[in-house]
Amino acid sequence: MTPEPFQSALPLLSLLVWLPIIGGLITLALGNERAVPARWFATGVAAVTFVLSLLLFTGFDYSTAAMQFVENKPWIPAFDIRYHFGVDGFSVPLIGLTALTSVLVLIGAWGVDKRVSQYYASFLILEGLMIGIFCALDSMLFYVFFECMLIPMFIIIGVWGGPRRVYAALKFFIYTFLGSVFMLVALIYLYMKGGSWQIADMVQLSLSATEQTWIFFGFLLGFAIKIPMFPVHTWLPDAHVEAPTAGSVILAAIMLKIGGYGFLRFALPIVPDAGAEWAWLLIALSLIAVVYVGLVALAQSDMKRLIAYSSVAHMGFVTLGTFIAFSLVRDFGNVDAARLGLQGAMVQMVSHGFISAALFTSIGVLYDRLHTRRISDYGGVANLMPAFAVFYVLFAMANSGLPGTSGFVGEFMVIVASFQKHPLIALVAALTLIISAGYSLWLVKRVLWGPVANDKVAAMKDLNGREMFVLGVFAVFTLALGVWPKPLTDMMEPTIANLAMQIAASKF
């Protein structure tokens, strides 16, 4: 059963959604001729949004799986579509990640001098739309935010991206929009079946095996492309390579997590029997992503493309932990192991948000100085940028799954859960620790160590105060989550326990 929601006296979620959107519109109205006021105002709005997001953590009840801070008002009464917000142990960490990353992105983007107000406005509006996705409890409201989110990212890539920015922006938009059309068909069918757009009501629907299968694949196409899963991942490297640094950071840290969140919010509780039947397929695709895409990353000569492929590999742990839970519950009756897999998937999403954001920010630091992302153009950077080298090595080691960093925690949880399904699955998944160490450390070796490669590298300056602050914050959270993940796991535990019960119960 779905726990009763907690109503909110303060419209905190509405503030978190609409403050950055309205702030973005005001920033846009300031015009590009007021670049300095636009920067300060937009950064201030993002900072206030982050401070407000902290109220979710301080006011959150860690003992219940019920939706909290709920706001529920009519929106389109003719179709019973409601303005329905609420958060639980899945959504609060992702909202916090979104708010924090958005502040750091805007601080890090102060060097941008092209259409400044439009640039900052795009990121503020994007922030509000992404937070709306994590808050929405009405499926149509979720879909509206899900689609609208594509527009500012399309603009960011298409206007401020690299030489092939138009191609990358169109590919990004077509892939993700096409997948969401299938998700929309699934949502419309559920509405026609039950007469409600509310996600909680859809969870309670009784669905046949055939209905669940079609709905499951509708959700799969919508969310797998967003993660992205193998083999629908090919849009991601192009989008990352052509996007500006801030666009790559948001894309990797937040937007990829929306696909994983969608599985947890929709596919698992609404169609649990289809999820159990097709879990083998998702597990297989996840293992291919972990191993094959990791090997593809080893062959890259562009730093951004390498980290983009590594993101696909690491997000494979999210889907592996998510769908291994079905087998553990249905085949073995092992609810504890299933909860561990789901918990590992969520921790991996948050951890990858910090690590990938930090790596793309680091690449942006190098690009700002040398205006190239080709690994062969670098060498001996540690001789000239020792502070940067410390951060870069830390994030590369975290990306390799080094114990003591956040990159280890989620992957370890998923591997342990997978072992209880079959040792071979755990063995294949654990190969990522070797493969990711291979491409991460090889990247560090070629960029940082050795003699100074050329005169351009010799002229590079170490981190300035702004860059030091941004990378320092990412480092603190990467280490804190690696050393002490308990506050995060405690927040998620009631929600995960409730989801494990939902996937254990058949709808037949």
UniProtKB/TrEMBL annotation:
InterPro entries in UniProt: NADH_Q_OxRdtase_chainM/4, NADH_UbQ_OxRdtase, ND/Mrp_TM
Molecular function GO labels: NADH dehydrogenase (ubiquinone) activity; NADH dehydrogenase activity; ubiquinone binding
GO cellular component, one term: membrane
Ribosomal protein found in the keyword field: no
UniProt KW Transmembrane helix keyword: yes
Domain of life: Bacteria
Domain NADH:quinone oxidoreductase/Mrp antiporter transmembrane span(s) in chain numbering: 137-432
Signal peptide: none
GO BP term (any one): electron transport coupled proton transport
Principal subcellular localization: membrane
Transmembrane regions listed in the UniProt entry: 12-31, 38-60, 90-112, 119-137, 143-160, 172-192, 212-236, 248-266, 278-299, 306-329, 349-367, 379-402, 422-444, 465-484
Topological type in the membrane: Multi-pass membrane protein
Compartments reported by the entry: Endomembrane system; Membrane
Pfam family, one: Proton_antipo_M
Family (UniProt): Belongs to the complex I subunit 4 family.
Alphabetical list of NCBIfam families matching this protein: NDH_I_M (TIGR01972), PRK05846.1-3 (NF004499), PRK05846.1-5 (NF004501)
Official protein name in the record: NADH-quinone oxidoreductase subunit M
Source species of the chain: Novilysobacter ciconiae
